[in-house]
Amino acid sequence: MTPRIIPVDLFDLVVYGATGDLSQRKLLPALFHRDVQGQIPPGSRIIGCSRRGLSAEEFAALARKSIEDHVPDAERPPDVVSRFLARLAYVAADAGAEDGWADLGRLLKPESDRIRVFYLAVGPDLFGPICDRLASLHLVTPRTRVVIEKPLGKSGASARALNESIGRVFSEPQIYRIDHYLGKETVQNLMALRFANALFEPVWNAGHVDHVQITVAETLGVEGRAGYYDTAGALRDMVQNHMLQLLCLVAMEPPISTAADALRDEKLKVLKALKPVSGDGVAGLTVRGQYRAGAVEGEAVKGYFEELGAVTSRTETFVALKAEIANWRWSGVPFYLRTGKRLASRVSEIVVTFKPIPHSVFDGQAGPIAPNRLVIRLQPDEGVKLWLMIKDPGPGGMRLSHVPLDMSFADAFNVRNPDAYERLLMDVVRGSQALFMRRDEVEAAWDWIDPILEAWSTSGDMPKPYTAGTWGPSAAVALIERDGRTWYEDQDL
Ligand SMILES: NC(=O)c1ccc[n+]([C@@H]2O[C@H](COP(=O)([O-])OP(=O)(O)OC[C@H]3O[C@@H](n4cnc5c(N)ncnc54)[C@H](OP(=O)(O)O)[C@@H]3O)[C@@H](O)[C@H]2O)c1
Q: Which pTM was predicted?
């Protein structure tokens, strides 16, 4: 299948924090891939910016290395590498000082009506100061956009303050809050599955769905990010943003269109309908864990404290929780969420388990009848599985088996799966906000998360330890098994 390219207008993209990890590992390779695909118009520029004093040649050398490190040989035609590097410029400007900003102004030319994107790949404490400087240099035109990344606050109050500081300079239609999960192919496929098929929507409700599981499991530990991670933890780092966004896409009502605000209005309703989890209720509905030394995929790994270089910490590296949505569609249907570091395998998936059949016409020899399950795998091998009961082939009477209709996207469509950042960056240039979070969504998500954080903090309990390479503390298994259910495992039959 040949990928289709939607053209974008001429643009200048300024990456603040261009020498940092996000830029080197994700943004520059993503932009390069779009150049290979012919999506970047001639004359468009990518301008790196950070404090380090680099010449244009030194920045180009850094960008070349980033492409060589993160793009496979076969996807790096030398002529496109040269074309891409020729688009680059670099300005050294400290967000907290005067130096360099005038150079940026001269390079961008305030009067230009090109699309202008400022990607703030820096810590959130710099968002406000950078926005203020852009305003004072008159660099914010009607065609200017700003892109920001998580963490969008540490609480509702800090998220509001952050939104205020950006909102003083940019209007909401100019602000692109990235949740890179929304750029994943399979996440968008969730929309296609739900709203382009007549099959699922009639049974997508409390009458037919028993429960939903959302798992985002990592095998990596905190490694180089330990300092940041210890101030955040799994609830802030994964649940407040990625997992609640996934929950919204599973649970929302059909939007009236795929326009950005139509989608975001529906997601917001889900967030507002989440049953509060607070006070004494938190202990029964949430589990916090923290990894200890163990082995992941056969390799011995350190525990969280050793990676952090501290004797103790109350930061959770794992969380499991049970959420409910108080509306007509979902009343009484639990949504079990779990995420953690140093788990047994790297997998992100959404599992919708349907209710058992009301009555079996088969005799005992047929074997147990397992419920239908729809499994939407986001990573590593993106695809969809629908578990059905069928008759075991061949003679031997009516024996039943639980088998998946299994579609791996890589096998089904022989096409490179673009990284989420490729799509998201081009959506920013195009002015499409559908895959970005609106201010009220972010704040509503925090409003649900804040009481959980507060209850954890007042309880004084430590997170429950789990051995690296397992599926988290046993309390996470108890959380779901108390309800007579189990976490989905791929080999489930
Ligand atoms: N890395 C990821 O995969 C990832 C994923 C999601 C979100 N994020 C978020 O994205 C942001 C950047 O992450 P990162 O991992 O790329 O961090 P990083 O590796 O520490 O890079 C930070 C960048 O910001 C620049 N910088 C720092 N202070 C500056 C200042 N005062 N003025 C101008 N530039 C300054 C640094 O360059 P100089 O030191 O030369 O100034 C560097 O280029 C963070 O908020 C992070 O939480 C990162």
A: 0.95
